Amino acid sequence: MHEVLLLGIAASELTVLLTSDPLRWSRRLSLFLTLLLAVICYSWFILGVSAVANAIGATLALVWFAWDLVDPTARGVLARWALASVGFVALLSLDPLSFPLLSLRSGRSIDLIIAVLFLVTGPVNHLITAILQCARGRASDPVPGWINAPVLPAMPDVTLEEDDEDEASSEVVEAPVISGALPILGAQVDEEEVTALRGGRWIGPLERLLIIVLAGAGAEVAIAAVVAAKGVIRFPEISHDSTGEKAEEFLIGSVSSWILAALVSMLIRVVSLH
Questions:
Q1: How many Å apart are CA 39 and CA 235, to the nearest integer?
Q2: Is 48 left (phi over 0), alpha (psi -120 to 50) or beta?
Q3: Among residues 199, 202, 209, 201, which one has the least CA distance to residue 258?
Q4: Do 4 and 57 meet the contact criterion of CB atoms below 8 Å apart?
Q5: 10 Å Cβ neighbour count for 137?
Q6: Could you tell me if 161 and 171 are in contact, meaning their C-beta atoms sit under 8 angstroms apart?
Q7: Is 160 helix (H, G, I), strand (E, B) or coil?
Q8: Which helix (DSSP H) or strand (DSSP E) does residue 159 occupy?
Q9: What is the pLDDT of residues 135-193, one digit of tens each?
Q10: At what angle do helices 25-41 and 51-70 cross, to 10 degrees?
Q11: What pTM value is reported for the model?
Q12: Which end of the chain, N or C, is surrounded by fewer C-beta atoms within 10 Å?
């Protein structure tokens, strides 16, 4: 049941991240049901989860998805994850002999670890975005997905100067290079196409996965090196921010991601011991 529930929650979070328009609920529902069906097939045919456990896990995943449709705000996202964390700890504390269907320590540990690792990589980006949005004072606003999320840092802007409306050609003015942003390679950039760096959606999951792997290998020094390297790489951009907003956003997002990675590492160690 736990594998179905965790993967179902991951499917719901991926649906939010991959859907550009949260108001088009029918499209989101179709994508979620497709992902949930894949999760049920994986749990039934590969993991050997019973039909009852599949039904319970899928039902709870549907409740999670419906809750997100009703309340897509950042405050609602934090409330869902807080409730899920309390329930997760409660299920982890149950005796597997007395409650074999509910206890997280029943069944194969590797199946639970795989589900948690998948959940904590890409899908949990929705939670990180909600935390950052609450820190900006916009807790009542809907949390954007990957497609329509604001991009930081942005690539250099390219402005087009038109000498006359009758002229067919326009002159491209090269924007100054922003410290910390990647340069644009190539001289031609369309007027309606603005290239932006969207590496944060990949850096966060890869960073969490790397920290979890290093923690499992007992390489604490390597974890410290990864944390320090991230700060060094982002320092040029942060140092040029006079308001300090980028530094605060960097710290809040990074610390939240590191805490999640540490909690997952502790969970894997506890589950592996049993």
A1: 41
A2: left
A3: 209
A4: yes
A5: 8
A6: yes
A7: strand
A8: strand 159-161
A9: 888 888 888 765 544 444 443 444 434 444 444 444 444 444 444 444 444 444 444 44
A10: 160
A11: 0.71
A12: C
